[in-house]
Automatic annotation (TrEMBL):
Involved in peptide bond synthesis. Stimulates efficient translation and peptide-bond synthesis on native or reconstituted 70S ribosomes in vitro. Probably functions indirectly by altering the affinity of the ribosome for aminoacyl-tRNA, thus increasing their reactivity as acceptors for peptidyl transferase. One of its GO terms (molecular function) is translation elongation factor activity. Its main location: cytoplasm. InterPro entries: Elong-fact-P_C, NA-bd_OB-fold, Rib_uL2_dom2, Transl_elong_fac_P/YeiP, Transl_elong_KOW-like, Transl_elong_P/YeiP_cen, Transl_elong_P/YeiP_CS, Transl_elongation_fac_P. It comes from the Bacteria. Keywords: Cytoplasm, Elongation factor, Protein biosynthesis. Gene3D superfamilies: 2.30.30.30, Nucleic acid-binding proteins (2.40.50.140). This is Elongation factor P. It comes from Rubellimicrobium thermophilum DSM 16684. Belongs to the elongation factor P family. Residues 69-123 form the Translation elongation factor P/YeiP central domain.
Amino acid sequence: MVKVIASSLRKGNVVEMDGKLYVVLRAENFHPGKGTPTTSVDMRRISDGVKVTERWRTTEQVERANVDEREYDFLYEDGEGFHFMEPETFEQIVVPHDVVGEGKAFLTEGVRCFVKTFEGNAIAIELPQKVVVEIAETEPVVKGQTASSSYKPAVATNGVRVMVPPHIGPGARIVINTEDLSYVERAKD
């Protein structure tokens, strides 16, 4: 076990509390004008899947579990779960649907992800930070909107909703951040 400060926790990290392992689903730092900055963390207990929320001071020490983390290439999805292959050894692993969760929209054949395992079981998946998606539909630009500050809703071909600048239209390929679904830039291809 490694002690880390609460503010350094990220989605996919595994922490130990009261002898049980939890995988971090969401971590957010709050810095109020007055008072102590805190970190709010939504977690899922690995043993039974129960979700819990914890709040720590950002400087508090938290036990981070040592898990095996390796790169895997996504192959396909079936009733069992999501099948991944380790590129060096060609060893395959099945990641359950509840572990992948909302990240399934970004899994296309050949996408390289980090899969975290504990005692041989997949407990968390870390998607690439940025992915390219194609826009399926967008709302029309409202007259008088300035391009510098306003974004409009759009839906990508994989079903993900994202806010894009007014000049992005259907068929455009864009790069988005998988952590917060924010627009990064137009794809260079």
